């Protein structure tokens, strides 16, 4: 047996067992109900029994596309053309494969071939080309409408054309035109649920999630066994959770998972492909605990899609916090999966993983690509910043600092000042520990020089980051961060100045920051409970510096300012008495 015949036999091998329905009509009905594994089984048997019927190959290829197996789809479409050269639907299928692979010009060539000799009433190629443009990774709704309008001109009685037109107009944001087409399709066939669902989803694009949930829930009460309704509910709950108050997010998001499980139970599809689609939903909805369970099942499944590395990578990053392993999984995903099949979130987690694992150059490049590739539904700049905030709050300060460096390097970022502030805090904390003497160490200028040299790159970054915040002209940033930034910038400079090791040779690196802090507290409102502590520290450090330089009168002035706020301050009190 040749390799090609062997491959085809594997692709077309049916599940062992009996299947009562064997007609193309039954297979298409199963596809409409999203019972894809059942439909695939029927179509594989039809191809085996009717090898010269090209239409069977086309619908089998469509199943492979739904399962994200683009290469398998292309192989089946080509076999369809070989066995039934006159069936142009398989040229349509190959054109859709080109769209999936990002090759629009090749797709248009195949589409032109497919429609060149159509009969007067032959409209299906036009319909499926239109749907192909709608479902493409980069949808072209205008092209879709062009082909669907031609299909409608050939057959005004097929409601699926109107449903597709509704989808295309909805994609363009033309809600009224979308509604008209969905309504007309519903009038044409009252039993169809697709136009009813389409009308509900118009409101979803407008983020009127409560309306959509009400409409879809009502439809499930009328049609409790129609699986696609529950998938749409799942996706709507997920989108709704993103706009919900923080204390309601998890509850609403969990409803999405529950509805997706209901969808799977109704389709009866327990295939690897169905679990892979479920895993994709869990990725988008951020349900990493559930994803971990599904990913482990998929990892052991024979012939599983290489996308399993996506799930394993996300789990390693979010659940296990094993950043080196996460980077390994994500790098493997990128090496095994065609670029067209990667999603913006893959670049996000590949970037976060590599940054967190230590390869900041590669990680930042991937994060920049994630932002460039994001869709309207993504908000990856926010996710990057919020990931850094979460790492910081969880005590993973070094990892947080690494991630913050991306928004901190972009003055146009909404998180530019936040990121610089937290980089400053993180690096001050790390650098000051390096510079401080260990217990039992003799404090000498020589020890100070060694420790300051070790801590200098870190403290320099802190000073630079705080300097960005201090230099702002934005009132909201000043109110939020200015006082703290001046204080910790001053402390970072104090550590670099070596005052504790060699006070006589202090240069006063910190003087400007603490002087600005004392001026800022007069004009900038701050509700920080540590404000008085900042003021007394600033006065004490400034007083001590001027004392070291022999300006006793100025030194005494600063210490007296401390006593006004904190009469019991021992450090200032001793100097006031002495001076």
UniProtKB/TrEMBL annotation:
Top-level taxon: Bacteria
TPR repeats, residue ranges: 536-569
Signal peptide: 1-21
Keywords from the UniProt entry: Repeat, Signal, TPR repeat
Pfam families per the UniProt record, alphabetical: TPR_16
Keyword Signal: yes
The name this protein goes by in its record: Tetratricopeptide repeat protein
Organism: Sphingobacterium suaedae
Species lineage: Bacteria, Pseudomonadati, Bacteroidota, Sphingobacteriia, Sphingobacteriales
């Amino acid at each position: 047996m040749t390799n090609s015949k062997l491959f085809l036999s594997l692709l077309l091998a049916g599940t062992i067992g009996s299947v009562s329905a064997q007609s193309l009509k039954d297979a298409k009905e199963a596809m409409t109900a999203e019972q894809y594994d059942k439909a695939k089984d029927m179509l594989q048997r039809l191809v085996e029994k009717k090898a010269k019927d090209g239409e069977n190959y086309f619908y089998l290829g469509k199943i492979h596309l739904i399962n994200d197996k683009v290469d398998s789809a292309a192989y089946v479409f080509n076999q369809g053309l070989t066995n039934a050269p006159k069936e142009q639907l398989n040229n349509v299928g190959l054109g859709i494969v080109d769209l999936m692979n990002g090759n629009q010009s090749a797709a248009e060539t195949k589409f032109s071939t497919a429609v060149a000799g159509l009969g007067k009433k032959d409209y299906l190629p036009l319909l499926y080309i239109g749907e192909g443009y709608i479902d493409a990774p980069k949808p072209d709704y205008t092209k879709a409408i062009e082909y669907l309008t031609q299909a409608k001109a050939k057959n005004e009685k097929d409601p699926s054309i109107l449903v597709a037109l509704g989808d295309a107009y909805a994609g363009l944001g033309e809600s009224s035109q979308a509604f008209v087409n969905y309504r007309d399709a519903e009038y044409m066939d009252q039993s169809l649920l697709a136009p009813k669902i389409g009308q509900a989803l118009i409101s979803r694009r407008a983020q009127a999630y409560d309306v959509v949930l009400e409409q879809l829930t009502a439809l499930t009460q009328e049609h409790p066994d129609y699986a696609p309704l529950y998938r749409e509910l799942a996706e709507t709950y997920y989108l709704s959770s993103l706009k919900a108050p923080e204390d309601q997010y998890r509850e609403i998001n969990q409803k999405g998972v529950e509805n997706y499980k209901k969808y799977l139970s109704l389709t009866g599809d327990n295939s690897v492909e169905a679990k892979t689609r479920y895993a994709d939903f869990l990725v988008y909805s951020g349900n990493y605990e559930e994803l971990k369970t599904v990913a482990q099942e998929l990892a052991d499944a024979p012939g599983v899609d290489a996308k399993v590395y996506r799930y394993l990578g996300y789990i390693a990053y979010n659940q296990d916090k094993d950043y080196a392993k996460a980077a390994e999984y994500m790098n493997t995903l990128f090496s095994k999966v065609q670029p067209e099949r990667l999603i913006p979130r893959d670049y996000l987690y590949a970037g976060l993983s590599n940054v967190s694992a230590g390869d900041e150059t590669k990680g930042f490049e991937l994060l920049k690509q994630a932002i460039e590739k994001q869709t309207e539904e993504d908000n990856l700049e926010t996710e990057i910043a919020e990931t850094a905030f979460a790492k910081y709050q969880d005590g993973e300060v070094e990892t947080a600092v690494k991630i913050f460096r991306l928004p901190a390097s972009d003055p146009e970022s909404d998180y530019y000042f936040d990121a610089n502030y937290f980089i400053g805090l993180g690096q001050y904390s790390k650098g000051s520990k390096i510079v401080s003497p260990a217990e039992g160490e003799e404090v000498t200028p020589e020890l100070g020089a060694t420790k300051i040299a070790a801590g200098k790159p870190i403290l320099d970054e802190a000073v630079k980051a705080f300097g960005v915040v201090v230099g702002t002209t934005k009132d909201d940033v000043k109110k939020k961060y200015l006082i703290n930034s001046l204080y910790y910038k001053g402390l970072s400079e104090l550590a670099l100045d070596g005052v504790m090791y060699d006070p006589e040779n202090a240069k006063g690196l910190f003087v400007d920051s603490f002087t600005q802090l004392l001026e800022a507290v007069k004009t900038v409102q701050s509700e920080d409970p540590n404000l008085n502590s900042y003021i007394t520290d600033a006065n004490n450090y400034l007083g001590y510096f001027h004392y070291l330089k022999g300006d006793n009168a100025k030194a005494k002035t600063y210490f007296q300012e401390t006593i006004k706020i904190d009469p019991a301050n021992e450090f200032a009190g001793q100097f006031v008495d002495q001076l």
